[in-house]
Amino acid sequence: MGAIGEDELAKWEKMAGIGDEERILVSVRVRPLNSIEISRNDPVDWECINNTSIIHRNGISDRTLPLSTYSYDRVFGQECTTRQVYEDAAKGVVLSVINGINSSIFAYGQTSSGKTYTMTGITEYSVSDIYDYIEKHEEREFVMKFSAIEIYNEAVRDLLSSDPSPLRLLDDPERGTIVDKLTEETLRDREHLKELLSVCEAQRQIGETSLNEMSSRSHQILRLTIESTARQFFGGENFSSLAASVNFVDLAGSERASQALSAGTRLKEGCHINRSLLTLGTVIRKLSKGRNGHIPYRDSKLTRILQSSLGGNGRTAIICTMSPARSHIEQSRNTLLFATCAKEVATSAQVNVVMSDKALVRHLQKELARLESELRSPNSAPKSSNHSEAIKERDARITKMEKEIKQLIEQRDLAQSRLDEMLLATREWDQVSQHSTSNAQNAYDDVISISENSGMGHQSQDFSVISFESSFGSQNCKEIQLEQSKTQEEEEVHSVSSKYNAELVHDDHQKTSEKSRDEYGDFDELCKEVKCIEMEDNKRINLLLTDETEFLVPLRSVDFTEIEQQQEVQVRDQGQYLIEKVNESSPFEELKNLKTNEEEVPPVKSATMVLSRSMSCRATLMNNSCSNSPTFIDKIEPSPYVKERRQSALEFNIELENFQEPKSKYNEIPKTVSEDDITSISGFVDGIKAMAQIHCQEKERTISEDIGKKKTVKDVCLQAVISPCESPSRWPIEFEKKQQEIIELWHVCNVSLIHRTYFFLLFKGDPADSIYLEVEQRRLSFLKNTINYNNNTSTDNKQQITLASSMKNLRREREMLSRQMQKRMTTMEREELYSKWGISLESKRRRLQLAKKLWSETNNTEHVKESATIVAKLIGLLEPEHALKEMFGLSFAPQLTHRRSFSWKNAK
Ligand SMILES: Nc1ncnc2c1ncn2[C@@H]1O[C@H](COP(=O)(O)OP(=O)(O)OP(=O)(O)O)[C@@H](O)[C@H]1O
C-alpha cells in the first residue's frame, strides 16, 4: 500500500462510508417565477411543505399524478439560496474527491428552470472549498487538473480548445470511456481555475429560445481531477497517491418544441437534447431497478461519458430544477419522475489509490515483454529487409516518373507556346467578324463555351462551368475539358490525328479553320475567355490556358449550327493534341498516388456537351448586352455548380471551414495562405456576381411585369447604380456613406473578416468602384433578409444560413486568425497590439481576444483600417490593390472601348 497506511485508508473509508452501498443524493430546487410567468399571471402550483417534500396543489384531485407528494433527500423552495443548495445537496459529494472518490453533481430540469444558475454557484463554492481544504492541509501535496467538454448535437467538443472539431470517444479497459485528445490543464491556483471557467462559459453553445434568452444548448461537463500525496513521501521511490475527479454536469434543458417555439437550428438542438436526456432517463430507470440486464449507456455520448458516475463506484448528487408555474406542469412532473427514479439508483463508492511505483514496474514489465516477443518473432528480421527493399523500389519509381513528368511538361509547354502563336495569328480575322455583331445574341460576348454537338446541344439549355487549377507544374493553368460528339466522326478523326504543327495540317482542315476564323472572328479572345463548356459525349480533350481567368456566372446557352461547331473545334484541335497527351499521361496520377496515400487529388469536372456562351456579371451590368428575353433566362435550370456558387455568394462564411494553413500537395510545393483562402477572393467575386445576377433577374422580372418587357435588364441595372460621373463632387461623400453602410451590414450579417478586408482594401473610393459598392450593399441587404427569414422559418436545411451559423463561422474564422497570429506575427508585434488594443499581457488566450476585437467597432474608422491591415497581414495579403485586380482582371467599370459582340448564328 506504500506510504498511505492501512489505518489511514480505513479512517477515510469510514469517514466516507466506503464499502456500503449508497444511493444517489437527489434534491429538487424550485426557482421563483420569472418575469414572463409573472407577466402572464401564471399561478404557482407547487409548494415545498418541508425540507424533503413538495406537493402539487391540485395533486389530490389530479388522478394522473402517481403521487401527490413527492419526497427527496432535500427540497429547496423559491426562497432558498444557491449556497444552501450547495451546502445540503452537493458539498459532501463534491468533497469526496479529496478523499480519492470520484464524484459527480448533475443539474437536471426543464429549459429555463435554473440549472445553469444553480450549477454555476455550486461549481464556484466547490472550488472555493477545495482550495480552502488544500491550503489547510499542507502536509499533503496536491496536483489539480481541469478539463471541460460540451456535447452539442451529439458531438463532443473541447471547451478549452479553440479547435471546434469534434473529439472521439475511446474505450479504455481500465478507465472506461475517455475523450481522445482532450485538453487537460494543470492548475496553478484558484485564479487560474476561475479563468478557465470563464473560458468555458464563453465557449459554450448558447442560444435564445422563447423560454430562455441564454439557453444552454449543450450538455456541459467540467472535470476537476485532484491527486494528493503525503509530502513526506512525495517524490520518494515508493509512494502512493489518492486520485479522483469531480464532474460538474450542467445538462441542456429538456424542452417541448411547441413551448420553446423552437424552429430551425433550435429545433434540431432540441431533438438532440431530448434524445440524449431520454437515454439518460432510461439508464437511470433501469439502474433504479437494479443492475440486471442491459443498461443502454452507449445509446448516447452523454451516458457513455458519464457511465462511471451513474451507478458506478463514485458518488453522485442530482439537483433537479423546476419552475413552480402552472404552464410548465407537464415538464415539472417529468422532472420529478426522473428524480424519483434517480433516488433508487445505488452506487458503491471506492477510494482510488494510485500506486505509482507498482504501476511503473508493471509498465516496464509489459514493455520488456513486448520487446522480448518482438525479438523472438521469426518474421521480424526479414520484414524489415523487405521493407527497405520496397522503399528502394518506390524511390526508383518516383525518380523515373519525375523524369517522365519533366519531359511531358516540356512537351506541354511547347504545345502551349504553339497554341499561343496560333491564337495570336487569329487576331487578324477579328475585323471580318465584326460585321456580325448586331443581332439578338450580342449580349453574350464575355464568355463563349465551345462544344461540338451535331444537334443535341442546339435546343439544350443545360450548362455547367468548369474552372479549376491544374495541379502540376509551376504555372497556374486553367483546365478546360472538351468532349466531342460521337456523331461528328470526321472531325474527331481529324482532331486526333492532327499533331500540332501548322505546316502539317491537312489542306481541308486548313480550309475549314480559315472558314471558322472568318465566321467566328476574335478567336484569341474567345479562347482566353472560354470557361463554360457543356458536353454530352464521352471523348475528352483537355485544353490548358495560362491566361488569368474570371469566375463566371453563366446565364444562358446559345444555339450553334452544326457547321459552326465543327469548324470551331477543328481550329482548336491542332493545339490540343500534345496538351491532351500530357494531361492524360498516367505518371502524374501514379506519382500522386505514390506520394500521397491519403490526400485527395481534385476531381476533374466534366460537363454535358452543349455549345453555349455564357456571360459574366460584367456583361450583365455594364455592357449593352443583357438579354431582352426574360423568359429565356427563366427557363434555364442552373447547373449544380452554379447553384453551389450562388450558395457561396450568400453564405461565403461556410467556405471558411476549408481555410487551412498552407499544406503542400503531393508535389510538395508550399502555397501561400491567400491561395487557399477561398473565402476571400473567389467568395467575394462570386458573391458579387451571383448577387448581381439574381438582382438583374429580379429586376428583369419586375420590368417584364410592370412595363410589358419594354426595358432591358441592363437598363434597369444601370438605373439603380449610383453614378459618380454625374456628380463627381458628391461622390467622396457618397462613397463614405456607402462604405459605412456596408461596414454596418458586414457586422450585422457576420460576414467573413477576410472578405471585409479584401473589399475594404480594394475599394478605396475610386469612382469606377461605385458599382462594386452598390452590388455589395444590395447583396448584404439580401443576405440580411435571408438570415432573418431563415431564422424565423423552420427548416432542417443545413446549407441555409442563419444568424447562428453565420456567427459560428465568424467565430471559427476568428479562431483561425488567432492561430495565424502566432505564425505571422512576432511576439513583439503581438505584444504591441495587445497593449494598443487594451488586452492584458497577463491574460489568457490573448490572441483569441485580439481576434475577437478585429472589425468589432464599426463606427471607428481607425479601428476598421487597423483591423483590415492586421487581417491582411495574417492572411499574407501584401499588396491587395494590385494583386486582386490583376488576379481577376475584373472591371465593373464602364468600358470606354467598344466591345465587339459575337453573332454566332447570323455570321456570314
Ligand atoms: N433560483 C433562482 N433564483 C433566481 N433566478 C433564477 C433562479 N433559477 C434561475 N433563475 C433565472 O432564470 C433564468 C434561467 O435560468 P438558467 O439559464 O439557469 O436555466 P437553465 O435551466 O439552465 O436553462 P437552459 O436549459 O435553457 O439552459 C436565468 O435568468 C436565471 O438567472
From TrEMBL:
Enzyme class: isomerase
Annotated keywords: Isomerase
Superkingdom of the organism of origin: Eukaryota
Enzyme Commission (EC) number: 5.6.1.3
Descriptive protein name: Plus-end-directed kinesin ATPase protein
Organism: Dioscorea alata (Purple yam)
